[in-house]
Amino acid sequence: LIGNKAYSQLYGKVNAGYAFGMGEHGLSSNYRSTQNSSNSTYKEESVKTSFGKGVNFGLALGYMFNDNVGFEVGVDYLKGGKVKSSSVYEGSNQSNPGTYDYEMSANMLRIMPAFVIKAGSGAVSPYAKFGLTLGSGKIIEKDEAHDEDGLEVNEYKYYGGMALGFNASLGADFSISEKMSFFGELRYIGLGYAPTKGER
């Protein structure tokens, strides 16, 4: 939901929402290994990962050329949700028994220029948007080893490079006065990102 204050054909928006991950892939897994003198068992389960999920908030500035066609530039920040997995090695025959926990998340600043197509300017005005998405982000990976040597924590950061993709939205403005309205919006962002740098 956002508040929208308009000055003639120029308008500004403030927004906040939650993004659900799509296009998930298996970057990590839950793994358990039990080794004793009598038997050994192994179990592995893939953990689906998407760096697009999480809380996002931002603002946008737009201009309507007429009642139906306009252009908008949005700036959006994604605070990504965490993906967690673990590996457990237990039993008397394990060479290095213990529990190893992994955590990954991503943050990204995104710029989204888009064309706006709107169905009139009444009390309820449906609209659609489509355009490009440019982003600069960071992926954070953290692992903790709980074994016979104690606790060891490592953190890795991957960054650099430019993310490139597209965005498309469907929504509706609900006018409450001549200069103020609220809207609800469903937005899809397809974005590819490959960091070029990393540090530990």
Describe this structure in words.
This protein has strands at residues 2-7, 10-19, 25-35, 40-49, 54-64, 69-80, 83-90, 98-118, 124-147, 150-159, 163-175, 180-192, 197-199. An 8-stranded antiparallel barrel has the order 1-2-5-6-8-9-11-12. Helix content is 0%, strand content 76%. The mean pLDDT is 87. The protein has no helices and 13 strands. With 200 residues, it is mostly beta strands.
How would you spell out the order of helices and strands? EEEEEEEEEEEEE
Strand content: over 45%
Q: State the helical fraction.
A: under 10%
Shape type = elongated
Class from helix and strand fractions: mainly beta
Entry keywords:
single chain; 200 residues; mainly beta
What's the SSE blueprint?
Elements: E1 2-7, E2 10-19, E3 25-35, E4 40-49, E5 54-64, E6 69-80, E7 83-90, E8 98-118, E9 124-147, E10 150-159, E11 163-175, E12 180-192, E13 197-199
Parallel strand pairs: 3-7
Antiparallel strand pairs: 1-2, 1-12, 2-5, 3-4, 5-6, 6-8, 7-8, 8-9, 9-10, 9-11, 10-13, 11-12
